[in-house]
Amino acid sequence: MAVTVIALAAVGCGKSSTESAGGSDKSSSGYTGKGIGLAYDIGGKGDQSFNDAAFSGFQRAEKEFKIGGRDVEPQDNESDADKVQRLEQLAKSGYNPIIGVGFVYAPAVKEVAAKYPKITFGIIDDNTVQASNVADLVFHEEQSSYLAGVAAAKTTKKNHIGFIGGVDIPLIHKFEAGFDQGARSVDPKIKIESQYLTQTPQEGGFSSPDKGKEATNGQIAAGADVIYHAAGLSGQGVIQAAAAHKVWAIGVDSDQYQQSALAAYKDYILGSALKNVGGAVYELVKSVVEGKPLTGEQRGDLKSGGVGFADSNPKYQAMKDVVAAVEKAKQDIIAGKIAVNTK
């Protein structure tokens, strides 16, 4: 079993980090690295969503392959230079692979990967870093969002639903596009509220539950009774506000019904549009440990299980017509009968 200790020094200006030592038989596979290096996106560990999904893959790989690891938090208002320094420190320390959680790491991964060609790097949610030692871990978010749209449109009592995006960027537009298309496949005349919390990540769109709560209150006041968020840590505020008003929320990335920090609100979490970030992290580590590192674009979709829709809430499972509609939509997308919009 790995023994976890608090690192005495933060890596590359990160707020905090943890480091764990691998088991005694880690060299049996031929793996010679120090372990996994994981650098979190805005919001950090504990967001119950995107970053925590990455951490779940980190933990699984540590345990299964009996290797060490270090995960590092971001700092507020940090620059690309801070990210470069963080990744370089992980590389100098011998971690392999090193994974940047989020598209904001693209410039840093590109720069540092070029300096350390023998180390495998991964970047989640970006496919622009094209290098022989980099795996671009991306997803068809629009497909899982389509399922969220079907679920919302089949569940609403007012034919009025809402979407809240963390930041107004192309990646989050994919979530909205799929959600909108899925909902309108059920009811072309459905009313859909749409709001982005900020224009840039630096303004806190992915890390401000208060912004999520305020936006949700506004959409509920306008008449929406099912709210889907793609807003990272800000989504906690969305879920809290939905529960306070006794309307449905739909989570994102992780199965938010299962998150302990959201337990008080879970009765109002209809489901979650899943993105298997943890699985992508695990598979990249596995490939490195086995000596066959993944590189290039690795895109998860409904067919591969890279995205999906969580149905953990028994109240959702009891809605047989909703469950059936979502499952049919899923199979139609997999079969190619439905092409999901990305814009």
Keywords, separated by commas or semicolons:
alpha/beta, 22% strand, 14 strands, Rossmann fold, eight-stranded mixed sheet, six-stranded mixed sheet, globular, 10 helices, 343 residues
Distance between the termini: 46 Å
Strand order of the largest sheet: 1-2-4-3-5-6-7-13
The total strand number stands at 14
Q: Average the pLDDT over all residues and give the rounded result.
A: 92
CATH architecture of the largest domain: 3-Layer(aba) Sandwich
Helix content: 25-40%
CATH homologous superfamily descriptor of the largest domain: Response regulator
Q: Count of DSSP helices?
A: 10
Folded structure, characterized:
The protein has 343 residues and is of the alpha/beta class. It has two domains: 3-139 and 277-300, 3-Layer(aba) Sandwich (Rossmann fold), CATH 3.40.50; 141-274 and 313-334, Response regulator (Rossmann fold), CATH 3.40.50. It is 37% helix and 22% strand. It has ten helices and 14 strands. The chain has helices at residues 50-65, 80-92, 106-115, 141-155, 170-186, 209-222, 235-244, 277-289, 314-317, 320-334, and strands spanning 3-6, 17-21, 35-39, 68-72, 98-100, 121-124, 134-139, 160-167, 191-198, 226-230, 248-253, 269-275, 296-300, 307-310. The strands form two sheets. The protein has an eight-stranded mixed beta sheet with strand order 1-2-4-3-5-6-7-13, with helices on both faces. Strand 8, helix 5 (170-186) and strand 9 form a beta-alpha-beta unit. Helix 2 runs parallel beside helix 3 and helix 6 (209-222) crosses helix 7. It is globular and about 55 Å long. The chain starts with a strand and ends in a 9-residue tail after the last helix.
